[in-house]
Write a structure and sequence with these properties.
The complex is a heterodimer of chains A (159) and B (153).
Chain A (H helix, E strand, L loop, with lengths): L11 E13 L1 H14 L2 E5 L6 E2 L15 E5 L2 E10 L16 E8 L8 E4 L13 E6 L10 E6 L2
Chain B lengths: L2 H5 L2 E13 L1 H14 L2 E6 L4 E3 L17 E4 L2 E10 L12 E8 L6 E5 L12 E6 L10 E6 L3
Antiparallel strand pairs in B: 2-3, 2-4, 5-6, 5-8, 6-7, 8-9
Classes of the chains: A mainly beta (159), B mainly beta (153).
């Protein structure tokens, strides 16, 4: 583009398309979400063969390929395993609104977990300045819960 | 209700997809001329003798640069094909059912897709003579032409 054209009006169209969707939970993920909503409990299912937990639960043990029929409540406290501090202002996929930055995503091993099944969620923005590996954390539930992973508000650091 | 049925439920949600579309230098000049002057611009490749509407920067046949090969077209033309949209979904320009037609403007070699309002849907015909009706409202997109209508004969 030459300088002679630089004052041309250029058209940009900005839109947010909103696409309705329906997600059928099935009985296993549904139990996990219902327990969050109704009982503020984080339920993982456990493989009857190898004893490992799956969180979020899945119908079949990914290692042993047998139905994971046992259920345990884990946490709500745990130990922070790792975290990301996110500075990129990505849009929230459920609203199209741009997120506040920075925000922290973290992985925590909930107390009682057998095997490798950390829970992945946001950290309380107030804890940004003191986040570290190994910190003790607790799950904070949302006041209004509707059977989604948003029923967990975030983790908070408790020490 | 069995425990399994109680545990299985449906979550209603929505997914938002923000996006930006850049019309570019050529597309912007086309839209601005529609909006501000109620003129339909195309580009003409003299080497191939072809007129392109909507305009493009490069001739699709000989790859000549058409950046400054602008010509103005009449707002009249002929229907070269059409379909009837009966399925309602979000983000349609008008409420179905409606006719989406390919319209080759007089002097153009390529058709543009646009809305055709011919009253009864059954009136739509290939070969129908039509005229562009410009929008009263500012749109900043191809809907600066609101629709095409049949020319009374």
């Amino acid at each position: 583009m030459g300088d002679a054209k630089s004052d041309q009006e250029l058209i940009v169209s900005r839109q947010v398309l909103s696409i309705p969707q329906r997600f059928s939970t099935g009985p296993v993920m549904g139990r996990f979400l219902r327990e969050l909503r109704d009982n503020r409990r984080i339920m993982a299912n456990r493989c009857p063969k190898c004893g490992r937990h799956q969180l979020p639960p899945r119908e079949v043990c990914a290692v042993c390929h047998v139905e994971a029929t046992e259920w345990d409540a884990l946490g709500p406290e745990g130990t922070l395993r790792d975290f990301d501090v996110v500075y990129y202002a990505s849009p929230d996929p459920l609203t199209g609104e741009t997120r506040e930055t920075p925000y922290v995503l973290c992985w925590a091993d909930l107390d009682g977990t057998q095997g490798d099944a950390p829970l992945w969620h946001l950290l309380d923005p107030a804890d940004l300045g003191r986040v570290r590996r190994g910190a003790r954390v607790r799950v904070v539930f949302a006041d209004e819960r509707e059977g989604t992973t948003g029923d967990i508000k975030h983790f908070e650091i408790i020490e | 209700m069995s425990q399994e049925a109680e545990n299985a439920f449906v979550i209603e949600g929505k997914m938002a997809l923000p996006y930006q579309y850049f019309a570019g230098a050529t597309g912007s000049k086309f839209i601005v001329a529609l909006r501000d002057e109620k003129k339909i611009l195309g580009v003409r490749c003299e080497k191939c003798g072809k007129t392109f509407v909507p305009p493009r920067q490069t001739c699709e046949r000989c790859f000549s640069d058409l950046t400054d090969a602008w010509i103005e077209l009449e707002p009249t033309g002929e229907v070269t094909g059409f379909t009837v949209i009966r399925y309602a979904e979000p983000y349609q320009p008008v409420t179905p059912p409606y006719v989406l037609a390919l319209i080759k403007l007089d002097g153009a070699d390529t058709p543009i897709a646009h809305l055709l309002d011919c009253g009864d849907l059954a009136n739509a015909r290939v070969g129908m003579r039509v005229r562009a009706v410009f929008s009263e409202e500012r749109k900043d997109n191809i809907l600066e032409i609101a629709r095409f209508e049949p020319i009374e004969s």
